[in-house]
Amino acid sequence: MRIVLLGPPGSGKGTQAALLHERLDLAHISTGALLRDAVDQQTELGQQAQRYMDAGNLVPDDLMLGLIEERLGQPDVANGFILDGYPRNLAQAEALDAVLERIGQPVDVAISVTVNEQEIVDRLSKRAIEEGRSDDTEEVIRNRLRVYAEQTAPVAGHYAARGQLREIDGMGAIDDVQQRLLDALQAG
Ligand code: ADP
Whole-structure pTM over 0.90, yes or no? Predict the structure, then answer.
């Protein structure tokens, strides 16, 4: 199964993707994690991406496309995948369609995880304290939420137009959300 997980920062999609990876043995492809690795290793991509990430802006599409194409070329992808953090705008959604068509692995379903705004702010503030991520300061969080609303939210429509979008409630316990996700994958 090939899944795109959509949801705002703090929606818990990374946590849910990791659990789904364990359960279904699908490749978990988190572009945020791939980028943070590149930054830690100070690769050329990492050096270019860092200032965008630190400001809470999207890393340019051409850099992202190279990253995602390379990841999708790895052998574990043949078993199916969960995309977590990509696509993040309509241009990325179209570029992804082209890559997946070329490798014969089109998306089966997109799941949008919804969470109310106050919960998002609470979760991200908590994560800032626990993980110390450099993009979890209040000002940057606000910008990430704005970027999400303006650029990423429309991506749901891309999949809805093809009848591939399902929504789940991301509020409540992690295990409960996981169960909703599994139910949504089974439905239809
Ligand atoms: P969150 O979903 O909590 O914002 P991520 O770990 O998914 O966190 O992403 C962190 C940062 O990495 C983003 O704010 C952005 O700068 C960059 N990033 C991740 N995925 C993409 C993408 N598909 N396109 C552009 N930038 C991205």
Answer: yes
Looking from the CA of residue 147, the nearest atom of ligand 1 is: 14
Domain 2-186 has CATH 3.40.250.10: no
Give yes or no for residue 115 CB within 6 A of ligand 1.
no
CA distance 111 to 126: 25
For the chain, what are the domain ranges? 2-186
pLDDT per position as a tens digit, 65-96: 999 999 999 999 999 999 999 999 999 999 99
Q: What is the pLDDT of residues 143-169, one digit of tens each?
A: 999 999 999 999 999 999 999 999 999
124 lines ligand 1 (CB under 6 A): no
DSSP 140-159: HHHHHHHHIIIIITTHHHHH
With a CB cutoff of 8 Å and minimum separation 6, the contacts of 51 are none
Cβ of 12 less than 6 Å from ligand 1: no
Q: Which atom of ligand 1 is nearest to the CA of 52?
A: 16
Between the CA of 186 and the centroid of ligand 1 the distance, in Å, is 28
